[in-house]
Amino acid sequence: MNYQEINELYELNIYPRRNITLVRGSGALLWDDLGNEYIDCSAGIGVANVGHANSDVAAAISHQAQTLLTCANVFFNDVRAQLVEKLVQMAPPGLDRVFLCNSGAESIEAAIKFARLAGGGRSRFVCATRGFHGRTMGALSATFKKEYREPFQPVVPGFEFVPFNDFEKLSNAVNENTAAIILEPVQGEGGVRIPGPDYFQNVQNLCKERRVLLIIDEIQTGFCRTGKMFACEHYGLVPDLLCLAKAIAGGVPMGAVLCGGRIDVKPGQHGSTFGGNPLACSAALAAIHFMEVKNLAIRAADLGDYFIERFAIPWPPIVRSVRQIGLMIGIELKERAQPYLVRLLELGILALPAGPTVIRLLPPLVINEAQLDRVVQALREALR
Ligand SMILES: Cc1ncc(COP(=O)(O)O)c(C=O)c1O
Question: What is the mean pLDDT of each run of 10 residues along the chain (384 residues)?
């Protein structure tokens, strides 16, 4: 049996798979077991911002693995201390406490629990249509897509959905029992949807007036993806809870919730065995250092503009619109995206869907102009 057959035989059939077996990566490139090269515009779904096989992250992991891999959270730890201090220094002002976990969904679960605690009996959450926050029961309850939620009814009660980027509808949905509003700053899986310039300022003001907490999910947008370290910076946004994961540790599983002054969690009310383990913390410190030293936020902003200049003016007739912020790019087609993703794969480009008609590009932020030129060329050919 080959690897694909073994995967299919023994793994649950959860993921719509593509017909290649990836075995190696470097920067923005990946190779399959037959030696074919691909330009990666998926980055492990927005994880590999610092590039595949990043040597700084690899060295940090190797050193930490030989020093201390695991450390129960009932003890203090040197690398965990350095990471939480670093996260607080980087974050929007006022987010000065950190909870560390292992994934995006876990980060959302924690934020929901923390908001319930701070809400003093308030238990409702207002979320956005097309929003995606993960697959565990709480995160799933905040996720819009019916196909994801329906088989698991009843999900956690009290989650309501209003159209993204419609402040009036959001405002009308908030009442005295609302604990928090949960939003992505740019919707990723929902189709790369970028809100209008005033939306988040209005949301933030509403939260202050009504004493409702604001949970911002930067699991996909965080760590330079949109041309800023955090997308919150585009809107002057200071949430009460900021959820992070994906790119935080250069590819090692990790999540985090950054908490503002209204959040108070007592011993025993939440926890995680692996959360904040030294291996992930050292990888995160190395990945964040790399992002800062290499100015990946500015690089993402510049390369995003570079891509748009080459691809979008003019875009091929089959394209309905192109939405882009940094290196988070959505190409909305007038028809289904799936066959074009297959064609792109044949042309050596790995891209993602975001809803039925959107091709989403989330390349590693170390991608270079020549590689982006190849992506543009392949897109033009595939979409011809
Ligand atoms: C915005 C957003 N929130 C939450 C999640 C869930 O993260 P994870 O898959 O690590 O649980 C994702 C994953 O795609 C995401 O894009």
Answer: 92 92 98 98 98 98 98 98 98 97 98 96 97 98 97 98 98 98 98 97 98 98 98 97 98 98 97 98 99 98 98 93 98 98 98 97 98 98 96
Q: Name the residue with tokens 């410190």.
A: 285
Domains in the chain with CATH codes: 3-54+295-382 (3.90.1150.10), 56-293 (3.40.640.10)
Mutate to test the pocket of ligand 1, among 219, 241, 248 (most ligand atoms within 8 A of CB): 219
As for ligand 1, residues whose beta carbon falls within 6 Å of it are: 45, 103-105, 108, 132-134, 184, 188-189, 217, 219-220, 245
- Does the model's pTM come out above 0.90? yes
Q: How many whole angstroms separate alpha carbon 351 and alpha carbon 358?
A: 10
Residue 66, classified by CB atoms within 10 Å of its CB into exposed (0-12), middle (13-18) or buried (19+), is: exposed
CA-to-CA dists, residue 218 to 183, 305, 347, angstroms: 9, 21, 31
In sequence order, the 6+-apart residues with CB closer than 8 A to the CB of 368 are 28
Q: Which token pair is 276? A: 């904040």
Task: Decide the pairing of beta strands 213-217 and 29-32.
Answer: unpaired
